[in-house]
Amino acid sequence: MPLAHRFAELAAAWCGLVLLGCSSTKTPDSAASEAGAPDAPGAAPRVTSVAVTGSPGAYRFDVTLSTQDTGCSHYANWWEVTTLSEQLVYRRILAHSHVDEQPFSRSGGPIDVGPKDGIVVRLHMNDTGYATAAMQGSAAAGLTPTTLDSGFGEKLKSHDPQPNGCAF
Is 50 within 8 Å of 138 (Cβ atoms)? Predict the structure, then answer.
């Protein structure tokens, strides 16, 4: 078996064992809020879609990110949900880079927001910080692309949970 295939099998097994919820399965377009076309090389990191399922106070978010990871030196290490007033609601830690899986989707929850609460879903890169290309809206109305001010919620970067390194 070629080494690349074996590595992919081991990575998939590792993700399953630690229950990180690794999956490259995308949500149906009808259930997701989408942003933009496929990325060109060098495109800025961004949240490209968010699908919301579940019920008020216990939603599940399926978030698709385009980050152009290069390995542990440059990768998305979390995505998060905040209020419009910059309060952290939920953070999904990403324990490894996704070099060969772009864009990629990861789920998180339960997320404690009401159906009409104004929220932002954004990503954080380990080396460059928060991306300004995010999604904004509500669980009931859906989320649409937005560009955040570069200082939006900057104080949240030190809040827990925090990643514990990069696996690969």
Answer: no
